[in-house]
Amino acid sequence: MTEIHHNALEGKSHFAGIWVFLEGRKGSLRDVSVQLIGEGRRLADRRGVPLTGVLPGHDVEALARHAIGYGLDRVVVVDHPLLEIYRSRPFTKVMATLIIRHKPEIVLYGASKNGRDLGGRLHAVLETGLAADCVKFDLDDDGNLDMIRPSFGGKSLAHILCKQHRPQMASARRNVFLAPRHDPSRQGAIVHEAVEISDADLDAKLLEFTEFVREGGARPDEAGIVVSGGYGLGDPKNFGMLQELADLLGGAVAASRKAVDSGWIPKEFQVGQTGMTVRPKVYFAIGISGAVQHLAGMQESGKIVAINIDPKAAIFEIADYGIVGNLFQIVPEMIQQLKELKARPAKTVEAVATIR
Asked: Considering the entire predicted model, what is its pTM?
């Protein structure tokens, strides 16, 4: 990869505008990219500057036009066959070249695997800062980006400012921000840029690409209903009971960090600061005490239902509905009642729903 030299201290006044790195996948935008467009729009309006999406890829013209509908003023497209699938060095070179060329004051990345890799590489190449896994953005009196993220195991929030270097860069995980509605009538510019890349910019040659497909139904960060279990379950086999409840509700199973650290359930099910962020319509917290680390990943859920034997458990402080009692009695009863409800004739169920 060609070396790129950049002095992030040179004239901050030359930097203007807000950029969002757009991550495309199979002809669509990743959820976190869409969510960051919404947040970027809010910041751009406050700053009085344009909002730009940057989309490296191959044959992505239609995707770029679709992206404008979420609130972008323009999309910068770099089209090249080597950019069809994310690879570190080509994407780093493209983004670094564009940032040096156009000097945005703020660049936002989704904290996906690719976004984390790209942001981490760029902060070193561009010699500027990067605040990772932010949960909120604000602007100080001087217009600097206030990048807010959990610290000390989620027990407090750190406000990070990058006053001396530009661009200011930050990442946020999926579901931290709400996705904006798509307006197909929105107008914006598609700007094609050229960046010279070749096989010499690759660390390895791609022979075959097989997409990973997760088994076991919906992902917790995609489901409308999440049934999450904690250390209070007492045994990994009891997650089978939660899976049965989730299946009846059309939802997905998740877990607290303590359950994951105990080896009861794989890491990809973990909700919290060091796991995933979920925003379902309903979140069941079963046998979960409510540590701040866990709350950081689910407190924006539509409705929170907590089941815990300890009436002083912290989870009850944010729950919309709380049940104090033995989960091994309560959850089986819920399962039984749901089964009975599903077994009723359709007209009976419809009548019950109407009455409620």
From this structure: 0.73
